[in-house]
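does this look right to u?? magnesium ion version
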Amino acid sequence: MKIVSVEATPLEAPLAKFVARARQTVPLKARRCLVVKITTDEGLVGYGEGLTPVAPQPAAAVVREVLTPFLIGRDPLDSEPLWEKLYATNKSRGYTRGYQMIAISAVDIALWDLKGKILGQPVYRLLGGTFWDRIPVYATGLMMEGDTAAIVNLAHQYYAQGFRAMKLKIGQNARQEIETVRALRQTFGSDLKIMVDANGAYDPPTAIKIGRRLEELDVYWFEEPVTPEDVIGLTRVREHLNMYIAAGECEYTKFGFRELLLKNAVDICQPDVARAGGITECKKIAALAQAFNLYYAPHAWGGVICIAATLHLAASLPNLLVCEFDRVPNPLRDELPVEPLDFRDGFLHLPDRAGLGVTPNEEIMRRYTLAT
Ligand code: MG
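got this back:
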């Protein structure tokens, strides 16, 4: 079987209402992603996704201009040598991060989807089977808009949906954010796991000072307390706090994570499968984390293909802690799939269909396709 075509489609779905994000970033006005579709000479199709919240077009250009010539005519079951080939050709030009790795991630996910369809198995079975009959997830969605009462109200909605773990964005107004965490703790008691995510907003001393207050409120993890480039600063924060430190959503490949782990910077690794190198690479990152006795709790801020890839991989990992389930409005998650995600009682259930088990609706794809 041979690959006969590779299509890269940048998608952008506008949001009805802006979403406030972390301190240093602009409000979110649309959800975006790159979809890669790989077709074989027997007419089988695999879909992959690249994480491109800002602009999917550059990643689409990398797929078309750089990666596709290496894929046409190749056997899609050769995902491991193909990954090495694509990585090597970019590495030799110094491209080991950014859009090149996002493009490789999308291609790799599409190859795994295709492999599942060729072999008639869900991807998690090809990855070695599942440790979980359902995947534990937490809600990301307690953003920065609204006062404490509004955020507690939203948390009530998540709680009613079955979530017992939720993440609050912080990094703008520490006094109010600590009050919000206190209100969440008082409202839901010890039953609720509360995570906070600063998206790198603090310098190390401030992160430590705020972290000590959050520890008193039994916060479960402190995500990206300092900017992702400051690995030494992250190590310093981790040494001074007793709560879990989580990071890695901005990191790429096992080589990037090796640095994070050797510097004792994290307790919880958070690669995004649609950014850090796809299923092939994230399986290795998880093994690396296991060798350091660390948890894997994937970042997942993409559309439905990213979520499905995250779930299949997560199912196969002995050191999975919990998966992120973004609850911020996202038509690329909710409108795009032919088969909706199966969320029940605080868990996502793995699709049992061949491949990733999600098919994008081509008509919805066309509606959100960006001109290139
Ligand atoms: Mg984050």
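Residues 98-119 form the longest helix (22 residues). idk if thats expected tbh
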